[in-house]
Amino acid sequence: MATVDQNHIKIHPLLVRLTHWVNAFAILVMVASGWRIYNASPLFEFRFPAELTLGGWLAGAIQWHFAAMWLLAVNGLIYLGYGIASGHLRRKLLPLTPVAVLRDMRDALRGRLAHDDLSVYNAAQRAAYLGAIAIVLVLVASGLVIWKPVQFHTLGVVMGDYEGARLLHFFAMAALVLFVIVHVAMVLLVPRTLPSMFTGRVKIKGGTT
Amino acid sequence: MKRRTMATSLEDFSAREIASLQRRIFMKRGLSLGALTLLSGCDVTNHDSVQKVLKAMSRWNDGAQAWLFDPNRLAPEFPESAITRPFPFNAYYGVEEVRRVDAGTYRLEVGGLVREKKAWTLTELYALPQTSQVTRHICVEGWSAIGKWSGVRFSDFLQRIGADTTARYVGFRCADDYSTSIDMPTALHPQTQLTLRFADRILPAEYGFPIKVRMPTKLGFKNPKHVTALFVTNEYPGGYWEDQGYNWYSGS
After folding, report:
1. On chain A, which terminus has fewer CB atoms closer than 10 Å, C or N?
2. What's the rounded Cα separation, in Å, for the pair A73 and A23?
């Protein structure tokens, strides 16, 4: 890790911080407008509270959803392109073994998971972050099938065509919302992780400032 | 997943539409509470500029969809056993307000950039070569249903009336005061159909008697019912829902 000064190290590169917050905004818009779209023809016996949705009515929600999808996609491509090319993703999220994930999750539930060094993700974090990336990829793929079921018909075949893609899109959304809830809860439990997502830096343990 | 019956779907729909109409009046100049929360601190001016951005993005999406559209790619066809029964009714009004068009006096008017501007009687249209399709109708609301439609291939009809197929748009006007318009590549798509029959029967009133234009490469609301006039033009014709903010291209 790059040392910023004698007391701080840099753990989040600028591009990762930027794409993180753009992504957070894009996901918020996508989920809130998506709930409005869901409400127009619910898959299940419930609707999302209108106050939590975005767009005012179906046409407005669709405008938001299909505008923010470009932000989500372009931002995601920049993040993944940078992460893969620079080795950032490999360095931070790999290696990952199921044994390590189970061990760290058990420790986390017992409140014993160490997070002294914020520059290194534990296995549970790695699994969660890789999972979130995978979920967004599923959301994009199923979203493409719902948006263009004829043009992306081939992609849709593996999802059970248009109606299958709708279900997949819904469950992937639910999984992502779950991730966000856990993610934010973890930040609340370890609040000093939050400033570093803006500044990129953390204080070295034992540092003087 | 529970499949809704046609009746509940209808009630749902009209109740929702009335609610959405009321809401739309309220929302005309602004955004939802959710958006306000999201973009906290924005004033009316910002609303207008957000609206401008959203409209611009919708136009950008028209272009993106036109670029994605493959004129040779066919919408999947299904066996007749896959047909959704009963097929849901949908319009901007309830099923009790369905327009009854008189078959005897009906004429399909043809105008704009076409060579032969004569009006067509139903007898003349029924006499033209017919094709059938069993395809999925996808509503902008999200639900879908499979139906069987038969009629005249629209590209054949355009050729017959001597339409300028280099023009940009084909517009439709309907007996129920509905209107919509499509791009020429979609008009020329092999599955775009001047529909005269539904499920092998003369098109019932609720599905658009006497003429619907069926295109499985577009969302349901782009498939007009009770069509009384069509015109070929280079000037953007808009449409009933499109003018209110629904994406114009709305392709599948």
Report:
1. C
2. 9
